[in-house]
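--- STAGE predict ---
source: upstream dedup step, 1 unique chain passed
mode: sequence only
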Amino acid sequence: MNDFARLLEAEIPRLRRYARALTRDVTRADDLVQSCLTRAIAKQHLWQPGTDLRAWLFTILHNQHVNDVRRSVREGVSVAVEEMAPVLTVHPRAMATLELRDLEAAIAKLPQEQRQVILLVGLEGMRYEEVATILRVPVGTVRSRLSRGRDQLRRLMDMTDELPAGAVAADAAPRRGANAKHTAEARRAA
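--- STAGE serialize ---
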């Protein structure tokens, strides 16, 4: 086994995890990873040793997923929602399992652009620059999508009351309206 093959093999668990999060289907995720690995081996000569192999592989996987989605839209392929819903059983840690299920459902409701950034940064622990390279967008776009995605997740999971004090104040700013006068007067009086 050559060095490239060993490096490639080390990245398979991360690729599978990201593919499963993207497709929400184990079989389709495995097919996506297989396609990614096949392309990576075929295009091995394009990878430059010393560069980030993980980012290169995630770019291939991401592009393959986008192509698959476009092809399914063009060909009219659809998957029933019942087939996509995960089957969870109750374990002694029922609350953790329920929270995980709720998080998975909330992530699935996010727009694809936000979901991809949340998964790459949050789940895979990638730097913003790596994510920007993989998705072929500016770093500022990654930060924006991440921020909007996190805010949307908080709303979907009813966690707005658990936000840090600064975040709540920032969220409240647009809603001040008529109460701004009373709030200002109360501050001056205090």
